[in-house]
Amino acid sequence: MKKITISLLTLAVGFFSQAQDDQNLVENGGFEQIEGKIKRGGAINVAVGWMSPTKASADLFSEKVKGDYGTPDNIVGFEDPQEGKNYAGIRIFSYNDKEPRQYISTKLKLPLRRDAMYCVKFYVNLAEGSKYASNNIGINFSKKQYNIDENKSIMTTTDVMHRDNPVVNAYFGWEEICATYIAKGGEKFLTIGNFFSNGETESQRLKKVKEFTGQSVVAAYYFIDNISVVMIDDETECDCKIKEHEVKTEFVYEVAPVNPEGMKDDLIIRYTEIYFGYGKSEFTISDMDHLKNVENVMLGNDAHKLTIVAHMDKEEAEDDDLAGIDMQRAQAVKKHLVEKGVSADRISIKTMGANEPQSTTGDEIGRAKNRRVTFILNK
If one looks up domain 25-239 in CATH, what number appears? Predict the structure, then answer.
C-alpha cells in the first residue's frame, strides 16, 4: 500500500510539473534540450528553439561540456544553473561598445492574445569574469523576428524588466526579473538583452574577483536561465519575488549622524551606523551625512584602515533570494568611499549575516535596526 501511495504521489507531481510546462509559452526555457555539440562560444543555436538575432551570437553552457563552456565552472565564471543543467550567456553592456552586445531570441509556442495578461519571468547572474555590471536587462516581444547580419545593438522597446531596474552587480545567486505584461496582440517572438543606448544604461566598473582565474571580459556579461511566459487572469497570480519583499516592509530605521566636532576619529567611526530597507543595499538621502563622516576620517589620516561590518535581519537570512545581501551592503559602502578618494586597499569587509543582531525584539523596528552596516577603525 505504501509503494502504491508513493507512486501515486510521484505521478501527481509529474502531472503538475507537466501542467506548468504546458502553460509556459517559451519552448525550452531552461536550455535543457540540445541538438548538436557545444564546441566553442556562440553556440546558442544548439539549444532547441533558440537563436541570436545579430551577428554577435550568444553562448550556451552545459553540464555535458567539460572546460570552457561547462556548468557550473566555465571560462567566464562559476554558477550552478537556476534550474536543470544548462544556461545561456550574453553581453549586456560594454564600455564604449568595445565588445558587441549579444541577444537571445525564441519563437513562442502561440502568439500572445490582445489585451491578455502574462506573467513573465527569467533569471540572471553576473559572471565573475565581468569587468562591468549594468542595468537595462529586459525582454522585448515582437511580431517579427529580428535578423541583423552585423554586430549591432537592437534599439527598441523593453516590455519586461525589473521593477527597480537596478545595476545587477552581485556575482552570487540568481536575480529574478519578473513582471506582468499586457499583450498588444500577435507577438510571436521573445528577445532578451539590452535595448537602450549606452548613454541610457547605468554601469559600474568592478574589481577582479581574486578567486576567479578564467577569462575577464570588458563587459557586463550575464548568465540567463529559466525563462517563462504564462497567461494569467489576475496580477496576483504572478508571484514576483520583489512583491513578496515589498509586502514585508518598506521601513528603514534612521538615526541622526554624529557631530564630529571635537570627537576622536575612533569614536566617530564607532558611533556611525547605516541602515537599509528589507532586501535593499541602496542608500537613503540621510545616509550621505553618515558616509561623509566616515569619508572625512579616512581622508584625514592615510594611516587609518577601515573594516566595514555588514548585517542582515533574521527574515533576510532565511530568504534564499537574499543570500549575500549583507555583502552587497558592504560593497555599496566601500564603492562609495573609493569613489570619494579612499584607497580600496585600506578598506576590508566582514559579513555577519544575522548573527549579531542589534535588537532581539522581533518587531518591525527591531528587525530594521538589524539591517545595518557598522564600522571598525584600525589604526
Answer: 2.60.120.260
